[in-house]
TrEMBL record:
Species the sequence originates in: Caldanaerobacter subterraneus subsp. tengcongensis (strain DSM 15242 / JCM 11007 / NBRC 100824 / MB4) (Thermoanaerobacter tengcongensis)
GO biological process, one term: DNA replication
Phylogenetic placement of the source organism: Bacteria, Bacillati, Bacillota, Clostridia, Thermoanaerobacterales
Protein name: DNA primase (Bacterial type)
Entry-linked InterPro entries: DNA_primase_Znf_CHC2, DUF3854, TOPRIM_DnaG/twinkle, Znf_CHC2
Residues of the Zinc finger CHC2-type domain: 27-86
Domain of life: Bacteria
SUPFAM superfamilies xref list: DNA primase core, Zinc beta-ribbon
One annotated GO molecular function: DNA-directed RNA polymerase activity
Pfam entry (one): DUF3854
Family annotation (SMART domains): ZnF_CHCC
Length: 358
């Protein structure tokens, strides 16, 4: 029954603000987990799929079915959530269950060693377009750092994407199980492709420097700034996970912030080691990553609007508790509230120092 519960109705009853219809099957809403942006109340990252009756936030990675949504927001178990839903007579959508049963099955994610090799070979075939490099330089990175961090632009031409896939396969790389890659079918023939977003790739690396996956910084922000390089719900596709990134060398002091690009910039400007989470609630297993880095003291450096955003504040408290219980000394990092992110603040500090020198 879980997948035939009307996800849109459940979301509305839980007080989630529905913004608009994105397609025949999806609605965009404000995410109750990461809180979305307070600057733009009409901007949301939570996708509600009324065909499959599932939800997914492209910002923080939270996802699941209607029961998951109810359970997480009410802070109860799935069993208790299902019981309450039955008692409250939530409407069902039997047609959605039938569609869900026919949905495309996706692949399991390939091991990290395989992903790293395929992704590096993939990046070798791409370039970073001038307009994307310009944006990165504006954020405070050096030319050398943009090269070192392996940012690359996604090609827009279908033929170019298909040729890249052919080359990878010819070189012996298996694209099955690699998030972002999937197959198209035409005239009974199948061929490999990868998702065609307009933007540039941001590698998300693990403690050993291996590429786990990519976030994409989108050129057009109609549906958000960032999405995962993921081929969920595509033929022979593979979903991305909400990977945490490591930015810097092992250190006793580590700063946790939101977003891999922000962490890249902040690491470059400060030389401190950062761990990035894709969203303030995407913290599962973070204590393992921090222990692998040899961390002892952790600073949480979420955006300054977290001081007034109740959802983010709640997530921060949950992270503090989790890390304290894991044996870390946990502190909160704050700065001049005129600057939203720690990367913005560090860049402003550097510019001020440059002025003083002049």
């Amino acid at each position: 029954m879980h997948r035939d519960l009307d996800i849109l109705d459940v979301a509305k009853r839980l007080g989630i603000r529905i913004l608009r219809r994105a397609s025949n099957e999806e609605y965009i809403a404000r995410c109750p987990f990461c809180g979305d942006s307070k600057k733009d109340p009409e901007h949301g990252h939570l996708y509600l799929n009324v065909s499959k009756n599932v939800y997914y936030c492209v910002r923080c990675g939270e996802g699941g079915d209607a029961v998951d949504l109810y359970a997480k927001l009410e802070n109860i178990s799935r069993k208790e959530a299902y019981k309450r839903i039955k008692e409250e007579n939530y409407p069902t959508n039997p047609a959605a269950k039938e569609r869900a049963d026919k949905r495309i099955k996706y692949n399991s994610v390939a091991p990290i060693e395989t992903r790293d090799k395929v992704y590096r070979a993939f990046l070798d075939k791409l370039v970073l377009e001038p307009e994307h490099r310009k944006k990165l330089l504006k954020r405070g990175l050096s030319w050398e750092e943009t090269v070192k961090n392996l940012y690359k632009s996604l090609p827009e031409e279908p033929q170019q994407r298909w040729e890249i896939c052919k080359e990878l396969i010819k070189e012996g790389y298996n694209l099955k199980g690699i998030p972002g890659f999937y197959q198209r079918e035409k005239d009974g023939e199948r061929y490999w492709d990868f998702v065609d977003y307009k933007g540039f790739l941001i590698p998300v690396k693990d403690v050993q420097g291996r590429i786990q996956g990519f976030q994409i910084r989108l050129d057009e922000e109609e549906f958000g700034k960032y999405v995962w390089f993921s081929s969920r719900n595509k033929l022979n596709g593979t979903p991305a996970h909400a990977w945490q990134g490591v930015h810097g060398e092992p250190s006793k002091v580590v700063i946790v912030t939101e977003g891999p690009l922000k962490a890249d910039v902040a690491h470059y400007l400060s030389r401190f080691t950062f761990v990035s989470v894709p969203g303030v609630t995407a913290i599962k297993g973070i204590e393992v990553v921090l222990k692998q880095l040899g961390a002892e003291k952790i600073y949480i450096a979420f955006d300054m609007d977290s001081l007034t955003n109740k959802a983010v504040q709640k997530a921060k408290e949950k992270l503090e508790k989790k890390l304290t219980e894991a044996g870390f000394v946990v502190k909160t990092k704050t700065w001049d509230s005129r600057y939203k992110g720690i990367d913005d603040y560090l860049l402003a500090q550097r510019k001020q120092k440059q002025k003083e020198v002049v």
